[in-house]
Design goal:
The protein is built from six helices and seven strands; from the N terminus they run βαβαβαβββααβα. It has 192 residues and is of the alpha/beta class. A hairpin with a 6-residue loop joins strand 4 and strand 5.
Length: 192
């Protein structure tokens, strides 16, 4: 049975991202997968990596629990909106505080290379846009995917990383949103 961790990066619990999260979770539940979740907006933590990597900040209890969930999971699913070509500051702060040396990667002594500590895990990024997905890809070059997929998840050894882009949400119809909710539920079910 697959162990799946759902990570919600949208700060607004009434957003369409939360509806997508619920749809995916419904599909997972139907498939019999083991599920844990992290709702970043509900965590109590300082999202600022105040000293960079020069000095280690103690992880708050919610972040320690998040680290354990990441280690537990076989598959991680991230939900977030694309804002200004990136992800919300809260998600970035979570990544800065949790995706640390010794937790998700290890620096090698006297080397520029590193060891990837999350090898064997897979991921899926589900994000929303206010522009068409094709425009985000062709014109803007999908910067958030490179930041999240290549520079964060693959850097730590997570592969493959699947991506789903949903947009434009702005001015979208109920029918369009319902169609995506069904697709995302099916995607969760197929994650068995």
């Amino acid at each position: 049975m697959k162990k799946v961790l759902l990570i919600q990066g949208h700060p607004d619990s009434e957003s369409f991202n939360f509806a997508l999260f619920d749809a995916y979770k419904k599909g997972l539940t139907s498939s019999g997968a083991e599920i844990k979740e992290i709702i970043i907006a509900d965590l109590k933590f300082d999202p600022i990596l105040r000293y960079g990597y020069r000095k280690r900040m103690e992880l708050e209890p919610d972040l320690l629990e998040s680290v354990e969930k990441i280690k537990w999971a076989d598959h991680l699913v991230f939900f977030y909106p694309v804002w200004w070509g990136s992800f919300p500051a809260l998600l970035k702060g979570f990544l800065d505080r949790v995706f640390l040396p010794g937790i998700v990667f290890a620096k090698r002594d006297n080397s520029l290379w590193w060891d990837k500590l999350l090898v064997g895990k897979t991921a899926h990024i589900i994000s929303t846009l206010d522009q068409p997905a094709w425009y985000y890809w062709l014109v803007n070059g999908r910067p958030t995917y490179y930041a999240m997929k290549r520079m964060t998840l693959e850097f730590c050894g997570i592969k493959p990383v699947r991506t789903t882009t949903i947009g434009p949400l702005r001015l979208s119809s109920d029918e369009y949103r319902k169609k995506w909710l069904k697709k995302i539920e099916k995607s969760g079910f197929n994650q068995k």
